[in-house]
Amino acid sequence: MKELREIEKFVHRLLTYVGEDSQRLGLRETPKRYAEMITQLTAGYRQDPKELLRDAIFPVRYDQMIVVRDIAFYSLCEHHIIPFFGKAHVGYIPDGRVIGMSKIPQIVEHFSRKLQLQERMGEEIADFLMSVLKPKGVGVVLEGFHLCMAMRDLQKDAKLVTSAVKGIFRSDPRTRAEFLQLIG
Fold this sequence. Notes:
CATH superfamily of the largest domain: GTP cyclohydrolase I, C-terminal domain/NADPH-dependent 7-cyano-7-deazaguanine reductase, N-terminal domain
CATH architecture of the largest domain: 2-Layer Sandwich
Order of helices and strands: HHEEEEHEHEHEHH
């Protein structure tokens, strides 16, 4: 694949630029490994999230909050192309339709597999669920640890917590409070 070859050439030049010998034993395969890895970590650009949902939306007569919490995510900061990772908590109140529980982590993974901002990632997850499920509301809270802050001169170990709330999660403070209580 031509794109992988171009990435490999770039990584070879990068290794030379930082003062490494790209032909030394430990680095010979690094350009290839990096090209394969970056392709996997950016798969969200080449995948339609609606494909994840085939046959996974079900009609129900249930109108209470559904929450999937502590979903691990791994993404790349678009400003530095360095990982950030953490936990996602996703809740929604169905309006006649639910999604298979295993699909929520897959949706989180899909939107994390791009160069991303944590704030935008939460909004994309919430907007997607609103569009495909048409629920009464959606809440997404992301807790992320950003290596771009921890590894650079800043050396801060702080976590970033962001939220995206839609529908009744935004308009009703009691619904938002219930969601926040359920995710702990």
